[in-house]
Amino acid sequence: MALSGQDVTHSQMRLLYKKFPPSVTALLLQCAACLFTWLTVEITGVRASLFMLAWGCGILAALFGYFSGLAVWWLAMQLLFVPTLLLLLGAGLPPGLFLAAFMVTVLVYWSTFRSQVPLYLSSTRVWQALERLLPSENSGVGFAFLDMGSGLGGVLTHLAGARPDGSYTGVEAAPLPYFWSWLRIRLGGYRNSSVHWGSFWGCDLSQYDVVFAYLSPVPMERLWHKVRAEMRPGTLFISSTFAIPDQIPHETVPVDDLHRTALHIWHM
Predict the structure, then answer these.
(1) Residue 21: per-residue pLDDT
(2) SS3 content of the chain, % helix, strand, coil (to 5)
(3) 157 alpha-carbon distance from chain centroid
(4) Alpha helices of 94-142 — where are they, by DSSP H?
(5) 61/82 Cα distance (integer angstroms)
(6) Residue 101's pLDDT band (boundaries 50, 70, 90)?
(7) How far is CA 79 from CA 34, 55, 132, 134, 164, in A?
(8) Does pLDDT of 131 surpass 90?
(9) Disulfide check for 62: which of 78, 165, 187, 204 has CB 3.0–4.6 Å away?
(10) Which of the two residues, 15 and 71, has the higher pLDDT score?
């Protein structure tokens, strides 16, 4: 069946998304939207305020992002980037403030442009739900828990305090969240908990009885292959919010928090 011109355009834009990381795709589309807006003004002679032109760029960039397959949060950033930049420039803020904001963003999100896993913070109700899913205290045998992408260390420190019979390990790639969680563990005196700086892809999952992940939709299929290859029979894999494509969980535990989180559970 022949493809229409519109279908071809959509396919080409999605190929762009697959070829480059989302951050690079977003930047290229933002530049394309600004160039298109400028050319339209030059050719047609339309008169519009700078702020209206900024919103025009944002709407075009968001549309380009939608057709190229960018995630929803990228569409919001595409829409607001130029108008927000214009507002900040008009506010007369000192240049050092922009540099400081950029450095903090880099330290917090670090490898997000590659991993496509932003910093998500789970709620205290999720921590409490995880506590109920841990192996029984009556077994008399300790267990090992891994938090893949442990963020600010909330899961680790809560469980380490609530269930001291376990051993809790976190892995975090972003420098600032890693340092925050390391400091939180040290100052809290959680001797049964630790956090490591690096990628969870290098972790040997066979060492853990419970593995917890709160990532994003992007790595879940690849992660499932790692989980199936490395985790031992009788262990638990728990994913917060994001399911694994084409894999039905053995259990789903709803959490009554602000985001209506669901914990997807697989018995290995």
Answers:
(1) 64
(2) 55, 15, 30
(3) 21
(4) 95-109, 112-115, 124-133
(5) 10
(6) low
(7) 12, 7, 41, 42, 47
(8) yes
(9) 78
(10) 71
pTM over 0.85: no
* Amino acid identity for residue 49 in this structure: S
**Superfamily (CATH) of domain 124-267:** Vaccinia Virus protein VP39 (3.40.50.150)
What b/e string do you get for 206-243 counting C-beta neighbours within 10 Å, with b at 16 or more?
eebbbbbbbbbeebbeebbebbeebbeeebbbbbbbbe
In this structure, the chain runs to a length of: 268
Domain coordinates of the chain in residue numbers?
5-93, 124-267
Cα 26 from chain centroid? 16
**Between residues 205 and 102, the one the model is more confident about:** 205
What whole-number distance in Å separates Cα of residue 171 and Cα of residue 196? 5
- Kindly report the average pLDDT of the chain as a whole number: 83
Residues 6+ apart with CB under 8 A from 58: 33, 78, 79, 80, 81, 82, 83
Phi, psi (degrees; rounded to nearest 5) at 147: -105, 110
